[in-house]
């Protein structure tokens, strides 16, 4: 799919028969993508096995999608969400559309919900309250890396990195270069939930499914640095089943004629 | 423009991305026009990460390499990224699976398939950590198709798999333990040492001391290695090292990029020996981490790879040969 002269990578998981609904799955922020990928793919396949058509995609400048990450920002990624929704619209055939977001993706789909008239539901997993808060928290990853690489010497504080961003310098976090534009736009992205509580479900994932949301300390360490047994992919059966149940209920509600 | 590929290997659909090469003017060209190199670069999964790698390192390398005129491919091996397949539950078990060459067959068949489909002279295979391991094994299986190796943070030491994920060992059951301890009293050991029957049982593997065979074998192996001045660590991945040494012996060009200085001793001295083989280029990228996602590791690694490709497989020369 081409969006603003960039190639947007997407994967469509189709069910065996006619879909119950379409799910637009917006993944986490760039630095969490690789860590959450396996679970995110499993979720999409699980939904397809239960009759949903799922579309997941990579944001511009991230993963398989083209573009330079440092030139991208929240508005570009919101644009990606709207474009992918329009793509699904063309193959909807009357079935409902539910927006699903993990972490940063939750923030985006919540914002997009008001802009996509066809959207019938919102499923949020660990959506942050605000884009700026999310980035502030993610700077922790940079501090962790600094500590691992340089030890106690030559380390900057989180506030010093923020000052660099505000001064227009790029700051590298987990291999991605954050820009001033990214930092500035993040402040205007607040979690916007619909007034009708029946159309959305917001779940904060527990630490038990931490790897789905990105793992913890030592996530970039090699085999020699990790001796404790760690799950390659966490057991998410309960999470999947509960959320499938909510989706089924929501689709059932939409099928009923309105009074 | 990147292209998504799906290739069936042993009835397993593998998903990958193709970065078509650019012609010398920088315009992306179709390889079939013969304007670019006829040698491709294939990057395998960096550990358990999807084919883009952490910090999209693999994407950046492939993009840059394609800009330099080489077709580049990145693939998800079975169970990883977008490719289907089963994986072990525990991360250490997965690493050990890769270290034992679990992906070797698949990677080797992928190399041959890509070579034929894109009419290439051969491929340079690479990856980070587990990807580097699979690249070495694949190069051994299809040596005629692999022209070089790009090894980022290769792991030559075996991962210890937690006991929970291993097969239960009946000899370690509590009742066996108590019998074993009973038999290991000093008087019994003395008696058995002088008994031809006990020795026959030991040789046949029927002895109560059979648990100690491994210990004796380990001690003997260590002594032999010491006598041969082999300084590899006890948990070294010997089959992998053997394969790589064979490839180095047949002058297969290898680029090794490491982030951790501790690797230098192991690779340059313990594995390759004191005489630096001309086929191996060793680069150390300091101030970064294992995944090269700090200290501008991505850019530095990418530049090293392009420089090495230009030095060993220059595009103009390749095109002329084609």
Structure description:
The complex is a heterodimer of chains A (259) and B (322). Chain A has 259 residues and is an alpha/beta fold. Chain A has helices at residues 30-49, 74-90, 104-113, 131-150, 158-166, 180-186, 210-213, 237-255; strands spanning 2-3, 6-7, 10-13, 21-26, 52-57, 97-102, 119-125, 171-173, 176-178, 200-203. Chain A contains 8 helices and 10 strands. The model of chain A has no long low-confidence stretch (mean pLDDT 89). Chain B has 322 residues and is α/β, with parallel strands linked by helices. Helix content of chain B is 42%, strand content 15%. Chain B contains 12 helices and 8 strands. Chain B has helices at residues 57-67, 91-99, 104-117, 130-141, 174-183, 186-193, 196-204, 211-227, 238-249, 262-271, 297-312, 315-321; strands at residues 3-9, 12-19, 39-43, 72-75, 122-128, 146-152, 253-258, 280-284. An 8-stranded mixed sheet of chain B has the order 1-2-4-3-5-6-7-8, with helices on both faces. In chain B, helix 10 links the parallel strand 7 (253-258) and strand 8 (280-284). In chain B, helix 1 packs parallel to helix 11 (297-312) and helix 3 (104-117) crosses helix 4 (130-141). The longest helix of chain B has 17 residues, at 211-227. Chain B starts with a strand and ends with a helix. Mean pLDDT of chain B is 84; it is low at 29-34 and 165-176. Chain A binds chain B through residues 7, 9, 11, 30-31, 33-34, 37-38, 41, 62-64, 66, 69, 145-146, 148-150, 172, 174-176, 220-227, 229-233, and chain B through 1-2, 4, 17, 48-50, 52-57, 59, 80-82, 87-95, 129, 153, 155, 157, 159-160, 162, 164-165, 260, 287-298.
């Amino acid at each position: 799919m081409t969006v603003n002269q960039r190639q947007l990578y997407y994967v469509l998981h189709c069910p065996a028969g006619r879909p119950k609904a379409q799910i637009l799955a917006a993944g986490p922020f760039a630095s969490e993508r690789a860590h959450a990928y396996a679970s995110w793919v499993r979720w999409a396949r699980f939904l397809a096995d239960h009759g949903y058509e799922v579309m997941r995609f990579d944001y511009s400048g991230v993963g398989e999608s083209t573009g330079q990450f440092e030139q991208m920002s929240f508005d570009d990624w919101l644009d990606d969400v709207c474009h992918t929704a329009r793509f699904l619209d063309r193959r909807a055939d009357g079935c409902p559309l539910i927006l699903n977001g993990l972490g940063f993706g939750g923030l985006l789909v919540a914002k997009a919900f008001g802009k996509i008239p066809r959207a019938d539901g919102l499923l949020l997993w660990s959506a942050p309250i605000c884009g700026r808060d999310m980035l502030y928290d993610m700077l922790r990853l940079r501090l962790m890396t600094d500590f691992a690489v340089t030890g106690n010497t030559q380390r900057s504080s989180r506030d010093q990195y923020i000052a660099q961003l505000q001064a227009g310098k790029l700051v590298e976090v987990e291999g991605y270069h954050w820009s001033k534009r990214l930092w500035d736009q993040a402040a205007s992205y607040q979690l916007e939930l619909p007034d009708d509580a029946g159309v959305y479900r917001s779940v904060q994932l527990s630490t038990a499914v931490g790897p789905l949301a990105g793992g913890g300390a030592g996530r970039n360490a090699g085999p020699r640095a990790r001796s404790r047994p760690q799950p390659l992919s966490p057991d998410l059966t309960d999470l999947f089943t509960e959320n499938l149940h909510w989706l089924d209920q929501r689709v059932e509600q939409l099928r009923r004629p309105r009074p | 423009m990147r292209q998504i590929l799906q290739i069936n290997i042993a009835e397993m659909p593998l998903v990958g991305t193709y970065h078509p090469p650019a012609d010398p003017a920088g315009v992306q060209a179709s390889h079939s026009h013969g304007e670019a190199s006829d040698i491709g670069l294939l990057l395998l999964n960096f550990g358990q990460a999807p084919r883009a790698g952490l910090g999209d390192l693999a994407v950046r390398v492939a993009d840059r390499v394609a800009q330099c005129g080489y077709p580049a491919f990145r693939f998800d091996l079975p169970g990883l990224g977008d490719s289907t397949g089963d994986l072990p539950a525990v991360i250490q078990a997965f690493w050990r699976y890769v270290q034992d060459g679990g992906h070797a067959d698949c990677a080797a068949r992928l190399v041959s398939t890509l070579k034929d489909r894109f009419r290439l002279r051969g491929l340079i295979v690479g990856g980070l950590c587990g990807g580097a391991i699979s690249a070495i094994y694949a190069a051994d299986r299809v040596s005629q198709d692999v022209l070089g190796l790009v090894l980022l943070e290769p792991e030559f030491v075996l991962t210890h798999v937690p006991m929970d994920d291993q097969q239960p060992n009946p000899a370690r059951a509590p009742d066996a333990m108590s019998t074993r301890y009973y038999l290991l009293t000093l008087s019994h050991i003395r008696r058995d040492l002088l008994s031809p029957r006990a020795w026959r049982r030991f040789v046949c593997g029927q002895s109560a001391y059979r648990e100690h065979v491994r210990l004796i074998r380990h001690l003997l192996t260590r002594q032999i290695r010491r006598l041969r001045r082999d300084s590899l660590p006890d948990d070294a991945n010997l089959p992998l090292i053997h394969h790589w040494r064979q490839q180095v012996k047949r002058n297969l060009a290898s680029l090794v990029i490491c982030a951790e200085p501790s690797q230098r001793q192991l690779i340059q001295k313990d594995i390759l020996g004191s005489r630096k083989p001309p086929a191996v280029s060793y680069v150390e990228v300091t101030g970064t981490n294992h995944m090269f996602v700090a200290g501008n590791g991505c850019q530095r690694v990418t530049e090293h790879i392009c420089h090495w490709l230009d030095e060993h497989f220059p595009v103009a020369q390749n095109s002329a040969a084609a």
